[in-house]
Amino acid sequence: MKIGILGAGAMGSLVGAHLMKGGAEVYFVDPYVKHMQAVEREGLHMELEEQEEETVKITMAVSDASKAGTCDLVILLVKGMNTKSSIGANRELFGEDTVVISLQNGLGNVDILKEFFPTGQIGYGVLKASATLRAPGRIAGRVKFPYSPKGVWFSPLEKDTPYRHLFEEMEKILERGGFPAALSEQTEAIMWDKLFINILYNAPCALVQLAGEDFMRHEEGRKLLKELAREVCEVASARGVPMDPEEYWKKERENMAQVPLNEHHFTSTVLDVFKQRKTEVEFLNGAVCREGKKYGIPTPYNEAVYYLLRVREDTYDLMFEG
User: Fold this and answer.
1) Which helix (H) or strand (E) holds 322?
2) DSSP letters of 276-309?
3) 260-264 long-range Cβ contacts below 8 angstroms, 24+ apart
4) Is residue 208 within 8 Å of 225, Cβ to Cβ?
5) Cα dist. 126→110, 187, 226, 303 in Å?
6) Counting beta carbons within 10 angstroms of the beta carbon of residue 145, is it exposed (0 to 12), middle (13 to 18) or buried (19 or more)?
7) Do 198 and 284 meet the contact criterion of CB atoms below 8 Å apart?
8) Cα–Cα distance, 126 to 37 (Å, whole number)
9) pTM of the full predicted structure?
């Protein structure tokens, strides 16, 4: 199977390399030219938890999609705010029968895909894995979180899609390549489970430029996070994904209590704000607010965080410099 990775940064590279190891023909497409050149020239070097370092040769790594050509399946891992422009700029990847699977953060990416592709050719999923781009051509990370049995969960948008065989083949290829994968009817529930974590530690931590552990350790910080958590659970439950606020909050407090005091994990949104870039807040807190309105669930805390981060990212050039 010929698979395109549109958005071959750290996470795209991690997924793509394991697809390659599993026997697929894999094409990286990303605007980061130095990274693509390094992968094309030397392969992708990976330093993964509990595994020996290895270098994986990729079929092709380019910034020009026309060199890759039409794929059987394209995995989308660009940031949500870049979905439309990335598809438009890389139309050569998509043929009449190409299946497109979003493994992006947050909610709302599938709605964008519906503007471009038939619903039978759309899939969605969530990654329970992590990766960091150490340098062009080099990543570090892990293929699954310690508490998760799989590193990726995904599903077709239409259960009876005639392209289901491609989804089934992707699961097999990932498993063969050493990336625990699940083609599952539980994908939406897993997505909300991850969204819960994203809501707690992405935008709030970006606003104050703190690691999630440090935000949670602050008494007032915990009060805000608990309210954000409650709203996410209420919206998810209204949508048909049962999430008990007290149960989820207790579990997260217990998880964070186990993090050593000297460990500080900064989310991608913290780094985006630090580097004065656009963030994914529209697909995180913004999405919770929009879903809340659909079901009549008030989301004042998520709205406040959403508004504050939108102000921040729209006024980088006006910030006080001392």
Assistant:
1) none
2) T---SGGGTHHHHHHHHHHHT---HHHHHHHHHH
3) 263/213, 264/211, 264/213, 264/214
4) no
5) 12, 7, 23, 24
6) middle
7) yes
8) 28
9) 0.92
Residue 153 φ/ψ, nearest 5 degrees: -120, 135
Residue type, 67: K
Continuous segment of H or E residues that includes residue 61? strand 60-62
Token pair, residue 315, equals 């006024």
Look up residue 308 and give its two tokens.
Answer: 């504050």
Q: What 3-state class would DSSP assign to 193?
A: helix
């994914």: which residue's tokens? 280
Backbone angles phi, psi at 164, to 5 degrees: -60, -30
pLDDT tens-digit profile of 49-98? 989 999 999 999 999 999 999 999 999 999 999 999 999 999 999 999 99
Smallest CA-to-CA distance from 136 within 10, 254, 310, 233 is with 10
> Locate tokens 């083949």: which residue?
169
Give the H or E element holding residue 141: strand 138-142
Tokens of 176: 């063969």
Q: Residue 68 is encoded by which pair of tokens? A: 């890759």
In three-state form (DSSP H/G/I as H, E/B as E, the rest C), the secondary structure along 197-227 is HHHHHCHHHHHHCCCHHHHHHCHHHHHHHHH
Which residue is it, tokens 């699977």?
101
How far is Cα 183 from Cα 193, in angstroms, rounded to an integer?
17
